[in-house]
Fold this protein.
Amino acid sequence: MLETKNLVKKFGSKTAVDDISFTIGPGKIYLLLGPNGSGKTTWMKIAATLTKPTSGNVYWDGKPVGIESRKKISYMPTESYFYNWMRVADVGTYYSDFFEDFDARKFADMLAKLDLAPDARVRDLSSGMNAKLRLAAAMSRYASVYLLDEPLNGIDLVARDQVLDTVIASMTPDAAIVLSSHLVEEVESIASTAVFIRDGKILEIRDTEELRDTDGQSLADRYRLLMR
Amino acid sequence: MAALLKYEFRKTKVLNLVILIIAAIGEGAFLLGSVLWADSALLTGSIVLTCAAAAGFLLVPFQSADLLYRELNTKQSYMLFLTPRSPKSILGAKILTVIIWLAVQGVVFGIFSCVDAAVLYRASGATEGLLSALLSSVGGAGFSVSDLVLFAAKIIGMTYGFILSVLMAYFFAEIVQSTVLNGRKGGVWFSLLIFVILFIAFISITGRVTAAVPEAYQFSVAACMDAACVVLFFFLASSLMEKKLSV
C-alpha cells in the first residue's frame, strides 16, 4: 500500500531520516513513536509529498508518491495552515472542491461533535480548536491512508476521547491510519502496530498485542526501554 | 483548474475591487466635471483615473508575486500542495488570474476612456476638423480614430506581455529561492537578486534581438520574446516545483 524504501532526508548537515524502510498495510492503526526530532514528521511530510526526499522514496501502489497518491492519502499536519480569511465552513468547502472523497456531511457532523462553530473565523480559533478543525478536515475524507501528526496536541482531555473515537470510527479493512503522538498511554489502546523511531532510524516495529502477550510490556514500557 | 482559479480569485479580489471602485469614483468625478465644466472635479477625476489605472497595472502582478512568496514560505503552502493538483496547474491558475484581472481592468478603463472622450467631445462642441487636427498631432497626417484604437491596443498588448514575462520570471525566482533556502531568512532579497539577474539578461537579449530586425517587425519580435519568456519560466518553475521544492 504505502511502502518506504531506503528513505533518506537531510537538511543541510542534519540527517532527519536515515535510510528507513517499512510498509504500511491496510486494516491497521500504526503508531509512530519517538522523541522530538526523531524523523516522524519528516517521514509523514514526505509521504504526503510536501517534502522531497534526499534519496530513496515512499511508494504508493508501486509508484513514487505524487499527485495520484494525494487523492488517496489524507494528511493532518501539526501546524495551522488554513487561509486566515476562511471560516470553519469554508475549510469544508475547500476540501470538497479539491478532494472527490471528501464527505461534507461527515465534516458537518464532526464539527458538531468537536464543538466547532461553522461560522467561526479560522484566525480566531485557539490552537486546540484549530487542531480539531485540522482533524475534522483530514478525517472527513474517505482516504486509503490517514497520516495524523500529533492529533492529540493541544486538545483537552474530554475532546481527546472524541478524537480517538473519530479515528477508530474511520477505520475500515481497506484503510490504514498512521498517527504519531507523545501521549503513548492514551493511544496505546487503539494501535495495532508500533514503529519506534529515533535519530531518523527505525529501532523496531512491533505488533502491540504481541508485545503485550509475549513480552508482557506495554508500548510505554517498550518506549522507555528503547529511548533510554 | 476551476477550483484553483476560484480560490486565486478569492485571494486577490479585495485589491482589484478596491481599484475598480476608486476608478469608478474617479470616473464619476470626471463625468461630473465634463458636464458641468467644473475644473476641480475634472482634474480630480483625471488624476484618480490615471492613478487607479497605473496602480492596477502595478499592484495586480505585485500582489500575485507577494501571494506566491507567502504561500511558498509559510505553512499556508499546504493548502495548495496537499491538493491533487500539478505544479503546472497551480502556476497556471496564478498567471491566468493575473491575466483575467488585467483584462477586466483593461476593459473597464477602456470603456471609461471611450465614454470620457465622447462626453468631452460633445460637451466641448469640438468640430470634426479639430478632432482630425488632434489625431494628426498624435500619429501624423491621415491618422484616424480607428488607427488610434489600434495603436492603443498595441501599446496595451505590449505592456501586458511585458508584465506577464516579468511576473513569470519573478515566480521562477521565488521558487528557486524557496527551493534553496526552504524558509530560512533572506528569502525576499535572494529572490529579488535572482530576478534582477534574470531581468537584466532578458532586457539585454530582447534589446539585441529587436535591434537586429527591421523596424516594422520589432513589435512582433518583442511580443514573441515576451511570450517565450513566459513559457520558458513557466516550465522551468513548474519543473522545479515538482522535482525539488519542499514546503
The beta strands of chain A are 2-11, 14-24, 29-33, 55-60, 63-64, 73-76, 145-149, 176-180, 193-198, 201-207.
